[in-house]
Structure formats: C-alpha cells, structure tokens
C-alpha cells in the first residue's frame, strides 16, 4: 500500500501534465480512502477536482470523506453541487436530506425525500423511517403518528417504533398515550437513558405523575449502569 502511495507521490511531484496529475491525485485519494486516512483522501480528491471540475466521482468521494471527518459545510457544498447536476446517488441523497433537516430546511428535505422515494420504490421502508424522523424534527406530530400507524399495519412493533409513538403522542400533548408507549419501549429493551434524559419533548411531563417520576428513575438507573460499564471496561 505505502509503496504504491510513495510511487504516486513521486509521479505527482514530477509530472507537468495536468490530466496525469489529476489521475494521480484521484488514485492517491482512493488509496488513502482504502486505508481510512480520510483527511489525506479528501485533500487528494479535491486537488484532482480542481483540475477536473465536472468529475462526479471525484465530487462524490470528496463529499464522502468530508462527511466522515465532520467537515459538514464542505460535504454539504459537494452534495448540493451533485444534486444540481442530477448526479446524486441514493446514499448521498439520504445524507444530503439529513443535512437539510439539521439546517431546519424542511422544504428541501421533503422535496429530496420525495425524489428518492419515487426513484427507489424497493427501498420504501428505509426511506419512510427517515421521513418519520423528518416529521418529528419539524414538530409534525400527527403526520409522524399517521406514518407510524401505517407501519404497524404491516410490521411487528419494536422499541424504536414504540419510542417514536411515545414522542409523537407527547408532541400532541397526550401524556397517557405517551407513557403507554414508553413502557412498551422499555419492555422491548429500550434502555437508552441518555436519549430519554435529553429528549426535550418529554420535559413537560417528567414530574406530572407517579408513572413519569418512575420512568425518570428507571432511565437514570440505565445511565448509572452504562457509566459503570464504561468505567469497568477502562
């Protein structure tokens, strides 16, 4: 691996042909990506991209590496350029839609998810899970609840679905239904105390009755167990 990288680095340093240099940068990017050196891979992909600006593969790889090392603005810029040129692949579209969600850009997120759904009917269930998260992200609790009820017509429930049902009902100010689904989630293995503790949608109910106080204590107990496990493993 490193012999190959060394050889390509030498070719890069002596070559005066732009196209040859672009190809060398791209191959170096591939090698660094294979060895999970994302920063170096990104540096080389983008160097190649400066020479071949319309190369969709290079832009796709640049976006992938930038996302891996949390350079979200850079990844977003590459992804939007791919979207504008109609060269966004499924995996990239999912990432871009999530970027839109994080930025609070509901309309672009919805539009992109609709395009993905139309183009990938075989991945309908996976996409709908992301759409569910989108509805919850933008406080569209009834839409989230409607989608969850559709899930339950064809799927067995699990702790994820039950927790999302609890969130939707909490958002609709239905504390009894929210608690019912929280208890269901816990019985199905939900023990993510940190998730519950930091989920602000339940803040108005945490001290509203015995069942909510008991749930808070259970989740704090899960946090204590998790922290003890981390300490013991270190």
Structural write-up:
With 234 residues, the chain is mainly α. The protein has three domains: 1-70, Alpha Horseshoe (Serine Threonine Protein Phosphatase 5, Tetratricopeptide repeat); 89-138; 141-234. The protein has 13 helices and no strands. The chain has helices at 2-14, 18-34, 38-51, 56-68, 72-84, 90-102, 106-119, 124-137, 141-154, 159-171, 175-187, 193-197, 210-233. α6 (90-102) runs antiparallel to α7 and α8 (124-137) packs antiparallel against α9. The protein is elongated and about 75 Å long. The chain starts with a helix and ends with a helix. The model has no long low-confidence stretch (mean pLDDT 87).
How is the secondary structure organized here?
Layout: H1 2-14, H2 18-34, H3 38-51, H4 56-68, H5 72-84, H6 90-102, H7 106-119, H8 124-137, H9 141-154, H10 159-171, H11 175-187, H12 193-197, H13 210-233
């Amino acid at each position: 691996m490193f012999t190959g990288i060394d050889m390509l680095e030498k070719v890069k340093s002596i070559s005066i042909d732009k196209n040859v240099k672009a190809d060398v940068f791209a191959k170096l990017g591939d090698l660094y990506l294979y060895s999970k050196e994302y920063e170096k891979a990104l540096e080389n992909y983008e160097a190649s991209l400066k020479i071949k600006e319309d190369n969709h593969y290079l832009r796709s790889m640049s976006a992938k590496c930038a996302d891996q090392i949390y350079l979200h603005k850079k990844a977003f810029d590459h992804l939007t350029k791919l979207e504008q040129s109609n060269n966004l692949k499924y995996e990239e579209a999912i990432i871009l839609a999530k970027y839109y969600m994080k930025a609070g850009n509901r309309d672009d997120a919805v539009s992109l998810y609709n395009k993905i759904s139309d183009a990938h009917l075989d991945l309908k269930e996976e996409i709908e899970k992301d759409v569910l998260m989108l509805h919850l992200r933008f406080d569209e609790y009834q839409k989230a609840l409607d989608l969850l009820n559709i899930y339950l017509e064809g799927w067995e429930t699990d702790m994820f679905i039950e927790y999302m049902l609890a969130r939707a009902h909490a958002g609709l100010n239905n504390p009894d239904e929210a608690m019912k689904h929280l208890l269901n989630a816990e019985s199905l293995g939900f023990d993510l105390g940190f998730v519950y503790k930091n989920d602000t949608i339940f803040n108005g109910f945490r001290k509203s009755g015995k069942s909510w106080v008991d749930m808070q204590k259970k989740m704090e107990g899960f946090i204590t167990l998790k922290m003890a496990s981390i300490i013991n493993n270190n």
